[in-house]
Design a protein that fits this description.
- The chain is α+β, with helices and mostly antiparallel strands.
- It has two domains: 19-108, Nuclear Transport Factor 2, Chain: A (Roll); 113-274, no CATH class.
- Helices cover 37% and strands 25% of the residues.
- The chain is built from eleven helices and nine strands.
- The protein has helices spanning 2-10, 21-29, 43-48, 54-57, 116-124, 128-137, 143-153, 157-166, 168-181, 192-201, 203-211; strands spanning 63-71, 75-83, 88-98, 101-108, 216-218, 228-235, 238-244, 259-266, 269-274.
- It has a five-stranded antiparallel sheet with strand order 5-6-7-9-8. It has a four-stranded antiparallel sheet with strand order 1-2-3-4.
- A hairpin with a 2-residue loop joins strand 8 and strand 9 (269-274).
- The protein is globular.
- The relative contact order is 0.10.
- Mean pLDDT is 93; it is low at 1-11.
Length: 275
């Protein structure tokens, strides 16, 4: 009987061994190939990864670190950091669970961040006279703010988290000012744009936003009416920022076409990115 069981395990068509999302992610981003890859893919990724894993398409010298961000009964998210001596980049692997087990369904990252470094290089290369001219033309977003904001927008998750912790007293001060102003006291409705405009125009709020290189405060960036989102920046609907929601039960769910990652920073704060 023991030998018959071993034989069955080797027969063609045998069910793949069940793997957890983190295990699948580690295999999928490893620099070597992964023969049973297709058994663990579904949805859009099944059509994208036809012959190579993501790891085979990434330059071999890059270090790859996988971290489980969330795992429920039906969905899971694993963050992948790619790193070398000069840079870091983050991807997010979204999983679904079906009757056969966990499958990798979608891969997401913050869009258009490649635009940031050339813009920073251009701005930091301006001579003093042109910087002064820039500041006159952009009184609400100075040269120093724009450079700092662009750098923060294109930073790796680990660097944004470190930035938040280093400046947490100012983030808490900004939060208290927004809450004290009661700009978002009413439920979201037709007056939401006016409430948001009033919050961002408040002198104390505006000063702290600019000091922290933040673009704006809003409730609309993450479609969470009970959350405050302090947006760093982004393009179209692909944004990054810091979200505040002290009640975990009210956090929005992560999804490939919504919030692609939500990473806890402590005391009700989260780093978020949208698709």
């Amino acid at each position: 009987m023991k030998y018959l069981l071993l034989l069955l395990l080797w027969l063609p068509g045998a069910a793949p061994a069940p793997l957890a999302p983190l295990q699948i992610a580690e295999q999928f981003v490893a620099p070597t190939g992964w023969a049973p890859m297709k058994d663990y893919l579904c949805c859009e990724v099944a059509g994208q990864a036809k012959t190579q894993t993501l790891g085979q398409q990434i330059p071999a010298p890059l270090r790859r670190t996988c971290e489980l961000v969330q795992q429920g009964t039906a969905t899971a998210v694993v963050a992948v950091e790619l790193r070398d001596s000069a840079s870091r980049r983050d991807f997010y692997l979204h999983f679904q669970r079906d009757t056969a087990g966990w499958k990798l369904a979608a891969i997401r990252t913050l869009a258009m961040t490649h635009l940031g470094p050339p813009m920073v290089a251009l701005l930091t290369g301006l001579p003093p006279a042109e910087i002064a001219s820039y500041n006159r033309k952009h009184p609400d977003a100075s040269h120093a703010f724009t450079v700092g904001n662009l750098r923060l927008w294109t930073s790796a998750d680990a660097d944004i988290a470190a930035y938040f912790h280093h400046h947490q007293p100012d983030f808490q001060k900004l939060l208290r000012r927004v809450q004290a102003g009661k700009f978002f006291a009413a439920a979201p409705g037709p007056n939401e744009p006016a409430a948001e405009a009033a919050a961002n125009a408040d002198p104390a709020v505006h000063t702290l936003l600019r000091r922290l290189f933040l673009g704006r405060v809003t409730r609309r960036a993450t479609n969470c009416s009970s959350c405050l989102a302090f947006v760093i920046g982004g393009k179209t609907t692909s944004t990054v920022g810091l979200l505040y929601q002290p009640r975990p039960a009210q956090l929005p769910a992560m999804a490939p076409d919504g919030i692609i990652v939500l990473r806890p920073l402590g005391q009700g704060w989260y780093l978020y990115k949208t698709a």
